UniProtKB/TrEMBL annotation:
It comes from the Bacteria. This is Uncharacterized protein.
Length: 83
């Protein structure tokens, strides 16, 4: 993860959460990070063939942001329940 490359401590909970989100949403890997994966999923990009530069250039509406926040909390709750 990028945080490790830059010697930034990350809570242990989040380390496994990135992988959990990738698995739950159908991403092959978690290197984009949970926030980007959740936003891209809400936006409608396919996890199987996402073009990250294209995704990152898209505007996110307030409604999509709210949906992403709701999905984040649902996934976090499911992750905590599984550990």
């Amino acid at each position: 993860m990028a945080t490790r490359c830059h010697h930034i401590d990350e809570p242990d909970t989040l380390r496994s959460f990135h992988n959990f989100v990738a698995q739950q949403l159908g991403y092959a890997e978690s290197t984009a990070g949970f926030a980007n994966m959740i936003l891209a999923y809400v936006y409608g990009f396919s996890p199987a063939d996402i073009d990250w530069p294209n995704f990152l250039s898209q505007p996110i509406s307030a409604q999509q942001h709210a949906q992403a926040v709701e999905l984040f909390y649902r996934l976090l709750k499911a992750h905590q329940a599984s550990h």
